[in-house]
């Protein structure tokens, strides 16, 4: 069984108030390493066996139409074994 | 005869009853439409109400976009059928690509509920023709993800084509680009609005009766056809 991972991030030019809130909470806990934080989403999709090129194309399509909104977000598809 | 205006109920819609009531107050007949059917029941216009369709999971409006009723609405809207999306309805219209841009988390991260002043910028759309150009109105605004975002090119297009129909006045509630509260498509039959006109149709329950004009506008337009 393999896992297909889709990671969705807001485009760099889109304001990410959630990421900013996390970034401002970190120093309050003594973590001073972060210059900035951006928050995204990760989808883990299980498939039987090795994903076929046809399945990957389908996932790509799903990522573009449902899992992300291309107006504000970008996505990356990868396979985890 | 009375004109039939559909109001769609998605799982998680909250303001469908108020929207239907606003249609009736304006003199139309409100027709309930259900998300799982593609039947528009011969309505002459549609309102997509506020709420949290499908729990707002994934992104607001993202799953509602694939409801069977939306297939019929998108096809009809592309042929000039009047559609008004309020709050969550606006988010659904953006996710359906009937309107450009997207609605994102309010810049201050708070869910906001307040009576909001707006300036009506475009009175040529099917839904705003009853307003005077530049008219200031007061209607409720209540959302967590109302920040209108788009790229510079889209913003310039919206501004140069006069497709911003309303802007926030006196107070920036959510960090929307150019204080945009509502936009229309190129033809002016599809309008999305973050604040809630359907909650401002009677002085007993609303901060004004300004919201009623959105609903009388579409009915006047239908009469003239």
UniProtKB/TrEMBL annotation, chain A:
GO terms for biological process: purine nucleotide biosynthetic process. InterPro entries: PurS, PurS-like_sf. Pfam families: PurS. GO terms for molecular function: ATP binding; ligase activity. Keywords: ATP-binding, Cytoplasm, Ligase, Nucleotide-binding, Purine biosynthesis. This is Unannotated protein. It comes from freshwater metagenome. The lineage of its organism: unclassified sequences, metagenomes, ecological metagenomes.
From TrEMBL, chain B:
Keywords: ATP-binding, Cytoplasm, Glutamine amidotransferase, Hydrolase, Ligase, Nucleotide-binding, Purine biosynthesis. CDD domains: GATase1_FGAR_AT. GO terms for biological process: 'de novo' IMP biosynthetic process. It holds the Pfam family GATase_5. The keyword Cytoplasm applies. GO terms for molecular function: ATP binding; hydrolase activity; phosphoribosylformylglycinamidine synthase activity. The keyword ATP-binding applies. InterPro entries: Class_I_gatase-like (IPR029062), PRibForGlyAmidine_synth_PurQ (IPR010075). HAMAP family: PurQ (MF_00421). NCBIfam families: FGAM_synth_I (TIGR01737), PRK03619.1 (NF002957). PANTHER family: PHOSPHORIBOSYLFORMYLGLYCINAMIDINE SYNTHASE SUBUNIT PURQ. This is Unannotated protein.
């Amino acid at each position: 069984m393999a896992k297909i991972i889709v990671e969705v991030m807001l485009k760099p030019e889109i304001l990410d108030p959630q990421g900013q809130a996390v970034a401002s909470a970190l120093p309050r806990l003594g973590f001073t390493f972060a210059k900035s934080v951006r928050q995204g989403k990760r989808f883990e999709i299980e498939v039987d066996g090795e994903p076929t090129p046809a399945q990957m194309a389908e996932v790509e399509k799903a990522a573009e139409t449902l899992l992300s909104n291309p107006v504000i977000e970008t996505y990356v598809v990868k396979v985890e074994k | 005869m009375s004109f039939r205006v559909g109001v769609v109920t998605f799982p998680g819609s909250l303001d469908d009853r108020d929207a239907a009531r606003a249609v009736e107050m304006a003199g139309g007949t409100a027709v309930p439409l259900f998300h799982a059917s593609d039947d528009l029941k011969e309505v002459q216009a549609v309102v997509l109400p506020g709420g949290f369709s499908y729990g707002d999971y994934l992104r607001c409006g993202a799953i509602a976009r694939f409801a069977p009723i939306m297939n019929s609405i998108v096809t009809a809207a592309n042929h000039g059928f009047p559609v008004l999306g309020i709050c969550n309805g606006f988010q659904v219209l953006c996710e359906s690509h009937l309107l450009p841009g997207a609605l994102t988390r309010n810049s201050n991260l708070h869910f906001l509920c307040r009576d909001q002043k707006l300036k009506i910028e475009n009175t040529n759309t099917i839904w705003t023709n009853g307003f005077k150009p530049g008219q200031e109105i007061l209607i409720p605004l209540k959302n967590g993800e109302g920040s209108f975002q788009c790229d510079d090119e889209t913003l310039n297009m919206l501004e140069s084509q006069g497709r911003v129909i309303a802007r926030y006045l006196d107070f920036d509630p959510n960090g929307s680009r150019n204080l945009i509260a509502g936009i229309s498509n190129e033809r002016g039959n599809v309008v999305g609005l973050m604040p809630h006109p359907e909650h401002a149709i009677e002085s007993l329950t609303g901060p004004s009766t300004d919201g009623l004009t959105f609903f009388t506008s579409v009915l006047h337009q239908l009469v003239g056809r």
